[in-house]
Design a protein that fits this description.
Chain lengths: 244, 253
């Protein structure tokens, strides 16, 4: 119960900071909480908003599926080949540290404006963490498990399904959690530059035409979604790690 | 040849192979020059840009921003991490926010930052700090969590003062995590500042790339991109080798 009140207190503190920032910076920068919520409800009632939200959701889901499938498959492939994995890991990890925003023009030059570029941008953000977590999980698998599988004369398929999959699943769930957040970030940033649809476009359009309530309310919506989705994934993550 | 030198050579071979492949694809026209400039041309363009001094101001600005953001994030992240570690209830409340931090697109707060700090480099530094601080905070929390209780008991047994307990026992024990946090903070500060410049500013390397892209100066754009890429990978490699050097030294003790 104290945990619940603590969360409420934190929320209250955030709203208070929001009030203070709005009072200090004024209407040209951020809309106060109450007006934002009112504007948000008005926005949620319009059909065009759902068109934008749908576009973002579609791009996000496509990017997420590609990131997870690609990341897990590449992670397994590199993890099972020890030398290839050890060669690849630092190279992939350093890809993680480059500012991927700067690669945005390349994505546009390759894919053109629109949905594919957005999805590709989500994927270059989200695939790497899934890959790295999967790779680490397979690499650190206890050799006893492999020996047991051999002793029981399991076929490769049986080994994959009954030994490998359950053993690496918790780490993959952690990777997917990080990948989920970064994919969302990638898709939104993609929409912020070169797109006429999506929530990222609404935010940037709000900045450009000085529609502050629009920017503030969509930003609040996106942040709330990100935090809630992440908390849900955290709960899943903890469960996956506990079951083992 | 030991395994680690074999690995290093294999890594170099992979990178060289990728670069050569790209070069071949560009030179034969399979990848159009409008899409990608051949890597060799990127390098010569970059060399010319560096020598001409055209991008010196941008480089200095980006370095100053990243350096300032990194210094602030390291100090503040460590202090906040230590503070939150001492207050378990606050920590429990903050946990979901910290865990979700990197899912928040911080750029949406740029108009607010401009209103707060004005149209200077401060909003960019603020974005870098916002990106980098939680990484240091999380690393500090993890590091302090992993200090073995037996070390704290030994410190009590020797009647160390709280200050020397921190200085002689807790900090050295948490050092690997703190260093890892600094490494991550640097990467995030770099990402935040460059991305901020790319989207919203009028100077710096990120802005240079965006400007070159918008004025169809493909070759300048790719030269700058290569510079940013080499910089990120280079600094990361240095920090990485420093980290494993420290780790080796510790394991020998």
């Amino acid at each position: 119960m104290t945990r619940f009140t603590d969360r409420l207190l934190l929320l209250a503190a955030i709203v208070l900071i929001w009030f203070a920032a709005a009072a200090y910076a004024g209407d040209i920068a951020i809309t106060p909480p109450l007006q934002t919520v009112r504007y948000l409800f008005g926005l949620l009632a319009t059909a065009s908003f759902w068109g934008h939200a749908g576009a973002t959701l579609l791009a996000f889901l496509a990017a997420l599926v590609i990131s997870i499938l690609g990341g897990v498959m590449l992670g397994l492939a590199f993890g099972l080949r020890r030398f290839a994995g050890d060669v690849a890991e630092p190279i992939i990890a350093s890809l993680y540290t480059i500012p991927k925003v700067t690669l945005y023009p390349v994505m546009l030059l390759i894919f053109g404006l629109g949905m594919p570029a957005k999805i590709a941008f989500g994927v270059i953000h989200g695939l790497v963490p899934v890959l790295l977590f999967t790779l680490a999980a397979v690499k650190n698998l206890s050799p006893t498990l492999w020996r047991t599988a051999r002793a029981l004369r399991l076929t490769p398929m049986q080994t994959a399904l009954t030994v490998l999959a359950p053993a690496v699943l918790p780490e993959i769930v952690s990777g997917v959690r990080v990948g989920f957040a970064l994919t969302l970030l990638g898709v939104l940033i993609g929409e912020m530059f070169a797109s006429q649809r999506g929530l990222g476009f609404l935010i940037v359009n709000g900045i450009n035409i000085h529609n502050v309530p629009m920017t503030t309310s969509v930003a609040v919506l996106v942040v709330t979604f990100a935090v809630l989705a992440n908390s849900a994934m955290m709960a899943l993550d903890r469960r996956a790690h506990r079951v083992r | 040849m030991t395994r680690s030198t074999a690995l290093a050579w294999a890594r170099v071979a992979v990178v060289v192979a990728i670069v050569v492949l790209l070069e071949a694809l560009c030179r034969t026209g399979i990848i159009k020059p409008l899409t990608l400039v051949p890597p060799s041309l990127m390098l010569t363009d970059l060399y010319r840009l560096l020598v001409s001094g055209d991008i010196t101001d941008d480089i200095v600005q980006t370095f100053l921003e990243v350096g300032t953001a990194f210094a602030i994030a390291g100090a503040v992240g460590f202090a906040l991490g230590a503070l939150v570690h001492a207050l378990p209830r606050l920590r429990q409340a903050l946990d979901p926010l910290l865990a979700a931090w990197y899912a928040i697109p911080l750029f949406v707060f740029y108009p607010l930052l401009v209103a707060l700090f004005g149209l200077t480099v401060l909003p960019l530094i603020a974005i870098g700090v916002g990106f980098a601080t939680p990484a240091m905070m999380i690393a500090t929390l993890t590091g302090l969590d992993r200090v073995p209780p037996v070390l704290r008991r030994v410190a009590r047994m020797h009647r160390l003062s709280p200050l020397s307990t921190i200085w002689r026992v807790i900090l050295p024990s948490a050092a690997p995590y703190l260093f890892g946090g600094l490494k991550l903070s640097f990467a995030y500060a770099f990402i935040g500042v460059i991305a901020g410049e790319f989207i919203l500013s009028g100077g710096g390397l990120g802005y240079g790339i965006a400007y070159a892209y918008e004025s169809f100066e493909n070759r300048k754009m790719y030269a700058l991109m290569l510079f940013v890429l080499l910089l990120a990978v280079g600094v990361n490699a240095v920090l990485q080798s420093l980290e494993s050097h420290i780790a080796r030294k510790r394991s020998r003790q």
